């Protein structure tokens, strides 16, 4: 007996009505989860319906405290985290950062050693994990991977905290306070991120 294939749900008028009523109150990611459609589908229908937060008077109003928080944290926190903090889209964060002249990561900071770590771990870490480790946006991770023509498996599960082998520089994400030994080097993994590596190499700025 042939197994039945579940057809994807189609966008309906009810979805249009929900989007119109809630577009100004929720981020695109929140709407994606509620409606059960990919983020791209949400954006396509937003444009189709002619929704514009500025015209609707719903655009994000940035207070002095908001701006200070963004300036203080833009270089060290992923845009996804900042977007959740402000309840806006990542695009809003990028646009405000450009307006303020903020840069996520100076390409000159990439060293041969950091590139080696990046290449070694790209296929086994999530984009979000790599962005957090190197202190860059997820977009920068994707651009760096494209530059080196790196490929990765379709699905990688994210864990909790980053640890690095001090010898071979392989990265793993496991629960905190666990002692993990590198099978190749027979040395214990240590908590790590890009700044830790730069300090070890004497390249921190």
Compile the SSE list and pairings:
Elements: H1 13-22, H2 28-35, H3 39-48, H4 64-73, H5 79-86, H6 90-100, H7 112-121, H8 127-134, H9 138-148, E1 161-164, E2 171-174, E3 190-191, H10 194-201
Antiparallel strand pairs: 1-2, 1-3
Could you describe the 3D structure shown?
The structure is a single chain. The chain has 205 residues and is mainly α. It folds into three domains: 11-53; 61-104; 107-201, no CATH class. It is 46% helix and 5% strand. It is built from ten helices and three strands; from the N terminus they run αααααααααβββα. It has helices at residues 13-22, 28-35, 39-48, 64-73, 79-86, 90-100, 112-121, 127-134, 138-148, 194-201, and strands at 161-164, 171-174, 190-191. It has a three-stranded antiparallel beta sheet with strand order 2-1-3, with no helix packed on it. Helix 2 crosses helix 3 (39-48), helix 5 (79-86) crosses helix 6 (90-100) and helix 8 (127-134) packs across helix 9 (138-148). 18% of the residues are buried. The model has no long low-confidence stretch (mean pLDDT 76).
